[in-house]
Specification:
homodimer, CBS-domain, Tetracycline Repressor, domain 2, three-stranded mixed beta sheet, 22 helices, 6% strand, CBS domain (chains A, B), magnesium (chains A, B)
Chain lengths: 471, 471
């Protein structure tokens, strides 16, 4: 036997292994981005072409995003002769528009024609009517028909998410006939699939067989005898949030989409759902902070405009809070310590309320909160607010009493703290629950309402009690 | 031909279709929860047993969660004779602990023995050492060995996520031999799988073949000739966040996990990754609001304690802001209008900064922000802050000038607004970027630093300028 090869000569694993310290094991590295920038600066087009030809569409999209505005145009010019339509699926919204503007309708149509129907719809649905028409006219008739049909389903519905490429066989077929069909019909089948759907003569779904199970069966068995009847069927008009819930809840990999009569239309696979889950979680986060529909690649003026609305609403609520303070000008004039201490009560209320609000909004999104436990959760949060309010009342009461050598002032701020943290717990749950019942997205509007309440109550309780007790 | 059956007699689709108006198409309905409560109250154990025997483990977990503390014990007593271990995978953390406390170690071990090794590890890793030992001792030796080995991998690593049940065949096998192996070895194969991994004699992964592709091949073809070499291999020590990135980036359904020498250890499937993606997105949201590690089922005192820390830090920063105000007591004593207006500047700064912060934290998590574009993003956000600051300076300057009939006061608040919104944009990006560089999770600590800065700068700029200009 020969000796084992020394460490350095051993074959490399397919991808960097554990010796590789860099966290960015996968994806586009900053070094790659910089190298492409340098190549573009120095006009080494051939080298850039070589680099991009090796990249997955998702990595190409990252490269387009990260290369920056100075080099982006030149990079796209290199990609445009055979622009990979899949790149669009991975590009952030604002860059997608930018790239579409740079390409000719004919080039876009060529890229779209290569896509599966769900990706094509995902791209085209965001364009304006003129652009849509122009691209649709340049598509091959069959793709065009599928895309146009897909666009008839409501936005954010299963009908838009689903792919039309699927494998379905009649229930009277045998395993052997099905396997032969898969082997001969290669060109008409989707590249990857995980379930074979079984349909009756009306093309209604009667069940499914996962690939990993049909392979273990004898050729003579009828598919109708081994199918799983208990599958989750999605109607085309179902909201994508519902679809995401279904996949997450039951750990699905693919699910059939049917029309109102139960007839098989398409299939949704888990990779499409991962995007939806990502978007929905991100949506909650961004909406709660008042930055809906954004990404870091948006232009300055666009970004400014999108933030303005939320800040303007906040200005109005801040002025409302100020007018509460104005009611007590005379009191503050006599006891300036009130002006010093008053932001503390409002700020603690806002923070405690936001904690409760975030938990509530997330529980609503994850369907952990419903009519069956709403009362209990509201009561619990109000109680948590009161307990923490009492603890912080003791702390801030002592701090304020010693700071201004006035124990009555300590009692005033302590009382205001308890009131505001109780209100914060109550409103942190009631506001999102109320909005949800009114079918308003609680993530969007809750935070404004909540901080208005905690500011107004915080200032009013503190200054009002001060006017009553200290004057 | 007979007439079409009238609407009501047509066979129902497998699951409620589009006529079904209720949004809760899937999962446990509030009606079901209430029915089970009533049955438990009236001692109709048999009816509860009938209901639960039909439910998927995920729905059972939802039922345990939503039924409420008064009925939970009774429900678990009904489930315990054949407690389905999969329920644990779907239960929220705090209820998982509660249920584990109610079951005997022997019952838990019986439930765990039924689980795939990744789910078993997910359950056991959170227990204390005594509980772990007790359950491990009650497991069948083979399961126990797998679980113990899994626990040797770092928390949140691919090694903990992976399942040991997979299908691998040597590269010299033919398609026919592989298919025969799948058909005869049914008992030793995982229930569902999507890829067949091809290994060399050292058990190193050399490639993979998706099931949907091997089925289309002739029996005589060698698997080594049709395998996909360009697969993404994950080392067992890789962080789960990295794994989620990989699945999301390339739309994977399963990926092989290898040891430091490239030898095949296990497989990660997309359903495990969906959970990770959910957790990570939720983590960012909850951490930004100061409520890490929480769920709505946590007990009152636990919840109070977990919120206290964050609120205490906020109290310290609020006191810091107050001490800035205290510097200007003499100024406020003479111009009380300052006390009325001063929260506006601080509040607008806090909100504008939070908008920027949220976008930045999310972009860091999604790896859209790196060294290659950090400078540009910081500059852009500072510019956006300055532009919005100028717009709001005009608005608030006019409002304050008219309100207090003092145009100099208007100029003071306008100037403070520009300064604070510029600082908000700058710090909303620099703070999370700085924390990320220091390897501190930017979602946890950013918000406290940011609001401290915008409060202190807001009060100092406004009151300081007032002292300079108005006195």
């Amino acid at each position: 036997m020969t000796e084992a090869a020394p460490e350095s000569e051993r074959p490399e694993p397919l991808r960097p292994g554990p010796d590789h310290e860099d966290e960015n094991e996968f994806g586009v590295s900053p070094e790659l981005v910089n190298a492409v920038r340098d190549d573009l600066d120095d006009g080494r087009i051939g080298e850039v072409e070589a680099v991009v030809s090796d990249l997955h569409a998702a990595d190409l999209a990252d490269l387009v995003e990260q290369i920056g505005p100075e080099h982006r145009g030149a990079l796209i010019d290199i990609l445009r002769p055979q622009f990979d339509g899949e790149i669009f699926a991975y590009l952030s919204q604002s860059l997608r528009e930018m790239v579409l503007d740079q390409l000719e309708p004919r080039e876009i149509a060529a890229a779209v024609a290569e896509l599966e129907s769900d990706d094509a719809i995902d791209l085209i649905e965001d364009l304006d009517a003129d652009q849509q028409r122009e691209i649709l006219e340049n598509l091959p008739p069959e793709t065009r028909a599928l895309v146009e049909e897909g666009l008839t389903f409501p936005e954010y519905s299963a009908g838009r998410l689903m792919s039309r490429d699927l494998v379905s066989v009649p229930q009277f077929w045998t395993v052997g006939k099905t396997l032969d069909y898969l082997r001969t019909e290669t060109d008409n089948l989707p590249e990857d699939f995980y379930d074979i759907f079984i349909v009756d003569p009306m093309h209604k779904v009667v069940g499914a067989i996962p690939l990993s199970r049909i392979m273990r069966q004898k050729r003579s068995v009828k598919v109708g005898d081994i199918l799983t009847e208990d599958i989750r069927t999605i109607t085309a008009t179902t909201d994508q949030e519902e679809v995401a819930f279904l996949f997450r809840q039951y750990g699905l990999v693919s699910a059939p989409v049917v029309d109102g009569n139960g007839r098989l239309l398409g299939v949704i696979t888990v990779d499409d759902v991962v995007d939806v889950i990502d978007e929905e979680a991100e949506d909650d986060l961004l909406k709660l902070s008042g930055v809906p529909d954004t990404d870091i690649y948006r232009a300055v003026l666009d970004t400014t405009r999108s933030r303005f609305t939320w800040l303007f609403i906040n200005l109005l609520t801040a002025i409302l809070a100020s007018s509460v303070i104005a009611l007590f000008e005379a009191t503050i004039e006599q006891i300036v310590a009130l002006a010093v201490l008053m932001p503390i009560v409002a700020s603690m209320g806002g923070n405690a309320g936001t904690q409760t609000l975030t938990v509530t909004v997330r529980a609503l999104a994850m369907r952990e909160l419903s009519n069956t436990n709403a009362v209990r959760v509201v009561a619990k949060e109000a109680l948590v607010g009161t307990i923490n309010g009492t603890l912080f009342a003791v702390i801030i009461g002592l701090v304020a009493g010693f700071w201004f050598q006035d124990h009555l002032l300590g009692i005033v701020i302590a009382s205001a703290m308890i009131i505001n943290l109780f209100i914060a717990g109550l409103c942190g749950t009631l506001i999102p629950l109320g909005l949800a019942r009114l079918k308003i997205d609680p993530a969007v509007a809750s935070a404004v309402f909540l901080t208005t309440v905690t500011d107004v109550v915080g200032f009013f309780a503190f200054l009002g009690l001060a006017a009553l007790i200290l004057m």
